[in-house]
Amino acid sequence: MAVFVALGAFLMTLAGGWTALRVTDRRHLVLGLAGGLMLGVVGLDLMPEALDAAGTEVFGVPAALLLFVAGFLLAHMVERLLAGRQAAHGAEDGASHEGRAPEVGLTAAAAMVGHSAMDGVAIGAAFQVGGGMGAAVALAVVAHDFADGFNTYTITSLYGNARRRALAMLFADAAAPVAGAASTLLFTIPEGVLGSYLGFFGGALLYLAAAEILPEAHHDHPARSTLLCTIAGVAFIWLVVGVAG
To answer: How many CB atoms are located within 10 Å of the residue 205 CB?
Structure first.
């Protein structure tokens, strides 16, 4: 049952990526919406779950929050290192797009794939608890996997990667929940480890949203409509979390 439900996440992820692909003439609106979706996922979905799952504290600070900060800093350091290497060697053969390192986009997309796999694991684990719990978790996952697909394609292409790479990462992200759900037939991930991962991933995702996606959205089109798209993205995740809760 869990694997069958995860197929819905597969389709919704592809739908999100297709939407991002089709609206290239409204790129600023796409980026504004993607930034809002990412902010909503981190603040309203990932971090509450991470704090609940990884309940231990380190010197008075929840472990999930420490890993959140570590993820943010690591994303910043990786981007700066890659940007510095580009500046030293110069852009060659389309290796950059508006000064951005394609590797950053691929790394971020790979993290999205890992997150989607954990979504599948969450579906499988919830169905092991009971049908009602499984249905609630599946609803949340399927709904926000539209945002995952949207963000995966947007992030990959934003950093100058070719369309085929962006599509490859999109399909990997779509397949990840199915693989994650299937894995629960064999083993389960300890709750503390899952919470720590979500905290770390949330920090990296927030960095990309706040330092890259949203500034890019307003760079050429500082319009009110872009801001409204960002707010709409956050509101959508809030709605999803509220309905699932």
So the answer is: 26
State the Cα torsion 184-185-187-192 to the nearest 10°: 20
| pLDDT tens-digit map of 161-195 | 888 888 999 999 999 989 988 888 887 667 777 77
Residue 28 contacts residue 220 (beta carbons within 8 Å): yes
DSSP state at residue 24: G
* Structural domain containing residue 108: 2-244
Give Cα separations from 138 to 33, 38, 132, 240 (angstroms). 23, 19, 10, 11
Whole-angstrom Cα Rg for the chain: 18
Q: Domains in the chain: how many in total?
A: 1
φ, ψ for residue 55, nearest 5 deg: -80, -5
Alpha helices in 159-223 (DSSP H): 163-183, 191-207, 214-219
pLDDT in tens, 200-209: 888 888 888 8
